[in-house]
Amino acid sequence: MAYRTAIHGAVLLCLAGLFMAGCGQDPKSGRGLVLPEGDPQAGEEAFVRLHCNDCHQVAGREDLRTRVEPLMTVTIGGKTTRISTYGELVTSVINPSHKISRYYRTAPYSKEGVSEMRNYNEILTVAQLSDLVAFLQDQYELEAYAGPSYISYYPSEKATGK
Ligand code: HEC
């Protein structure tokens, strides 16, 4: 009987833990943030009009970089093993220094943890932001993760001469 009570207690404790972790009581959590539905075509136009292409090339869309004198090249889109979430894409446009990928932690991309990405927050409308994110999301292609390649532990039959 005592055994059953102990299991009961453990299950309840787990549930309480899940509840606390899952419900994220942090008032600063981004949970629940949803922009209005964006239009990818309008997003592409905004991307060019706002000169995002001064610094970005979009995988497979060389046409978006003609008539541009690049300041630097940060590639957006293409094959990836992990697509950025909607929230991460929004954050990378309006708060680029929040999290800088390890590839861009040096000049000319960032300096002392501050992204060199242009700040658009005074001019970008909410409509432009949701269109841009809709456009950006379409550029990524999920690739299956191949996993680490292990060297075979067992010598092959040939090698052992069997
Ligand atoms: C002056 C250069 C510059 C301009 C202009 C610029 N960016 Fe960036 N952007 C960067 C740099 C540098 C990074 C990488 C460092 C970082 O994450 O902030 C970046 C990162 C990003 C990322 C994350 C990419 C990744 O794989 O981590 C997105 C998305 C992005 N920019 C979108 C935009 C959009 C949309 C615009 C136009 C509204 C824009 N950028 C304009 C320089 C720029």
Structure description:
There is one protein chain. With 162 residues, the chain is α/β, with parallel strands linked by helices. The chain has helices at 2-23, 40-49, 86-94, 126-137, and strands at 56-58, 74-76, 78-80, 110-111, 114-115, 140-142. It starts with a helix and ends in a 20-residue tail after the last strand. The model has no long low-confidence stretch (mean pLDDT 84). Bound molecules: heme C (HEC). Heme C binds next to β2, α3 and α4.
Summarize the structure.
The protein is α/β, with parallel strands linked by helices.
Give the key terms.
33% helix; globular; alpha/beta; two-stranded parallel sheet
How much strand?
5-15%
Low-pLDDT ranges = none
> By helix and strand content, what is the structural category?
alpha/beta
Q: Radius of gyration over alpha carbons?
A: 23 Å
How many strand units? Answer: 6
Written as H for each helix and E for each strand, in order along the chain, the element string is: HHEEEHEEHE
Mean pLDDT: 84
User: What profile does the largest beta sheet have?
Assistant: 2 strands, parallel
Termini Cα gap: 58 Å
